[in-house]
C-alpha cells in the first residue's frame, strides 16, 4: 500500500501539500504541534505515491513510499 508519512513537528502549516495533491487525500489536521501549527492528515486511502506533496513541502516534512 502506498504511504505518506508526515513529520508532525516539522510542519509549518503552509498547506501546499493539501493544495497540490492531485487525489485530494490530505486535509488540515485538528491537532496542534509544538510550534502551534496544524499539520495535515490523510483523509483517504487512495494515494498514488506521486510525491507531489513531498516535493511541494518547503520544510521537508513529508515522505512518500510507493508500494512495489
Structure report:
The structure is a single chain. With 68 residues, the chain is of the alpha+beta class. Helices cover 15% and strands 21% of the residues. It is built from 2 helices and 4 strands. The chain has helices spanning 16-20, 52-56, and strands spanning 3-6, 26-28, 40-42, 62-65. The protein starts with a strand and ends with a strand. The mean pLDDT is 95.
Q: Provide the low-confidence segments as ranges.
A: none
Structural class: alpha+beta
Order of helices and strands: EHEEHE
Q: What fraction, in percent, of the residue positions are helical?
A: 10-25%
Q: What is the strand tally?
A: 4
Task: Give me the number of helical elements.
Answer: 2
**Radius of gyration of CA atoms, rounded to a whole number:** 11 Å
Major sheet size, sense and barrel closure: 2 strands, antiparallel
Termini separation: 8 Å
The average pLDDT score comes to: 95
Give the strand content: 15-25%
The 3D shape can be described as: globular
Order of strands, widest sheet: 1-4
Please give the structural blueprint.
Elements: E1 3-6, H1 16-20, E2 26-28, E3 40-42, H2 52-56, E4 62-65
Antiparallel strand pairs: 1-4, 2-3
Brief account:
This protein is of the alpha+beta class and 68 residues long. The protein has helices spanning 16-20, 52-56, and strands at 3-6, 26-28, 40-42, 62-65. It is 15% helix and 21% strand.
